[in-house]
């Protein structure tokens, strides 16, 4: 017998769109909602919101020359894209010289 109404399935972590990042920036500036409530409103997991807020944190100067930290959707998106470009495997051949491949090609014939 299967249980179709199980509540043990958790939401999967998702990538945020630029629109969701903009909405998150608005909610963070208002400062009224907790991370959990922000996540519910965006339809993502709380850990996604937590990571995004950390990723997009910027330090700004106020008019009285004091510093404060806030979330910027633009900074979050930029850092996200930088991290994505670095996360892929690097090209295999850039590590080895052409001589290495010639030397080993003789000992391992291609079938």
TrEMBL record:
- Segments carrying the region annotation (Disordered) are 1-22
Q: Point out the signal peptide segment.
A: none
InterPro entries with a match to the protein in the record: Cro/C1-type_HTH, IS30-like_HTH, Lambda_DNA-bd_dom_sf
* Record-level Gene Ontology MF annotations: DNA binding
- Its domain of life reads Bacteria
Q: Which residues form the Transposase IS30-like HTH domain?
A: 14-56
Q: Which Pfam families match?
A: HTH_38 (PF13936)
* CDD domains for the chain: HTH_XRE
- Protein name from the UniProt record: Helix-turn-helix domain-containing protein
Source species of the chain: Pisciglobus halotolerans
């Amino acid at each position: 017998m299967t249980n179709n109404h199980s509540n043990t399935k958790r939401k999967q972590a998702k990538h945020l769109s630029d629109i969701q990042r903009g909405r998150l920036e608005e909610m963070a500036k208002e400062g009224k909602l907790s991370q959990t409530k922000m996540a519910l409103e965006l339809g993502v997991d709380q850990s996604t919101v937590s990571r995004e807020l950390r990723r997009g944190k910027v330090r700004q100067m106020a008019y009285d020359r004091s510093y404060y930290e806030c979330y910027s959707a633009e900074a979050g998106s930029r850092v996200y894209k930088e991290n994505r470009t670095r996360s892929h495997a690097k090209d295999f051949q850039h590590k080895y010289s052409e001589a290495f491949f010639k030397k080993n090609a003789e000992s391992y014939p291609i079938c």
